[in-house]
Specification:
The protein has helices at 18-21, 23-30, 46-55, 74-80, 99-106, 123-136, 140-172, and strands at 8-12, 35-39, 63-69, 86-91, 115-116. Helices cover 49% and strands 14% of the residues. The chain is α/β, with parallel strands linked by helices and 173 residues long. The longest helix has 33 residues, at 140-172. Helix 2 (23-30) packs parallel to helix 6 and helix 6 (123-136) packs antiparallel against helix 7. Strands 2-1-3-4-5 form a five-stranded parallel sheet, with helices on both faces. The chain is globular and about 65 Å long. It has seven helices and five strands, in the order E-H-H-E-H-E-H-E-H-E-H-H. The protein binds 5-O-phosphono-beta-D-ribofuranose. 5-O-phosphono-beta-D-ribofuranose binds next to strand 3.
Length: 173
């Protein structure tokens, strides 16, 4: 039977974040990575976050992915309470597309790293893929799956190029 114990914890500051970041879970699903998902806030429920991060290793998690918007301290607070790698997802807001979230997540002081992905666009998906890549360091099957994924990407882009060339020719008449 497949191992279903979560290896990755996905947490977010509010349920309002979920529609903006759910691509993170889809990326993990693509590679069959068991994960858990929860809402907790660095500001509204600081003790819950502290407990979650400080017990994560004992519960078997290998990576925490933390998404938050605005004064987005969730990833940084997690990083303060665990030695696990933390991936931060800045959630888009109305302030210049989420510049507040981006800077709050990415501008960590030295000594406490948070690997921050882009705000919006491919950011959440990249957070999931980065987690897969970290896990693949100790998992040859996962490494192979990533090689195949990259091969498919190459084929996909080649097909797009071919389609574009055909369109350009057609436009020329
Ligand atoms: C942050 O505040 C959350 O991550 C969310 O992006 C933002 C707004 O939260 P709600 O007011 O929608 O609950 O902590």
């Amino acid at each position: 039977m497949a191992d279903t114990k979560p290896l990755v914890g996905i947490i977010m500051g509010s349920d309002s974040d979920w529609p903006k970041i759910n691509a993170v879970a889809k990326a993990l699903d693509e590679f069959g990575i068991p994960h858990e998902i929860g809402v907790m806030s660095a500001h509204r429920t600081p003790e819950v976050v502290m407990k979650y991060a400080s017990t994560a290793i004992d519960r078997g998690l290998k990576i925490i992915i933390a998404a938050a918007g605005g004064a987005a301290h969730l990833a940084g607070v997690c990083a303060a309470h665990t030695t696990l790698p933390i991936i931060g997802i800045p959630v888009p807001t109305n302030l210049q597309g989420g510049l507040d979230s981006l800077l709050s997540t990415v501008q960590m002081p030295g000594d406490i790293p948070v690997a921050t992905v882009g705000c919006g666009m491919g950011g959440p998906r990249n957070a999931g893929l980065l987690a897969v890549q970290i896990l693949a360091l100790a998992d040859p099957n996962l490494q192979q799956a990533l090689v195949e994924y990259k091969t498919k990407l190459t084929q996909k882009v080649a097909a797009k190029n071919e389609a574009l060339q055909a369109k350009i020719q057609e436009e020329k008449g």
